[in-house]
């Protein structure tokens, strides 16, 4: 039996209170990992070209205010 399957089965058997505690921990752990991955991507320059393009577009007047955009939606 795989570790993931064992974990799934164990979680499925948790009493509600323990499940809620586990779920809160898991949500926080997952969010932290996503944040760490995103931060690494930013620090690694993976968004530099996108940011530069956005700044060029804004300076060229190719953008609209967020409020205007939301009103159009």
Helix and strand arrangement:
Blueprint: H1 3-12, H2 16-43, H3 48-59, H4 66-72
What's the main sheet like?
Answer: none
Beta fraction: under 5%
Q: What is the succession of H and E elements? A: HHHH
Proportion of residues in helical segments:
over 70%
Low-confidence stretches: none
What value does the Rg take, in angstroms?
21 Å
Which term fits the overall shape? elongated
**What structural category do the secondary elements indicate?**
mainly alpha
The total tally of domains equals 1
Overall average pLDDT: 97
Give the number of DSSP strands. 0
Describe the protein in words:
With 73 residues, the protein is an all-alpha fold. The chain has helices spanning 3-12, 16-43, 48-59, 66-72. It is elongated and about 60 Å long. The mean pLDDT is 97.
Structural key phrases:
73 residues, elongated
Summarize the structure.
This protein is mostly helical and 73 residues long.
């Amino acid at each position: 039996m795989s570790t993931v399957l064992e974990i799934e089965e164990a979680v499925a058997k948790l009493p509600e209170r323990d499940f809620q505690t586990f779920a809160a921990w898991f949500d926080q752990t997952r969010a932290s990992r996503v944040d760490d991955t995103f931060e690494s991507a930013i620090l690694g320059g993976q968004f530099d070209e996108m940011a530069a393009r956005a700044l060029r577009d804004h300076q060229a007047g190719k953008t609209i205010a967020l409020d205007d955009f939301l009103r159009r939606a």
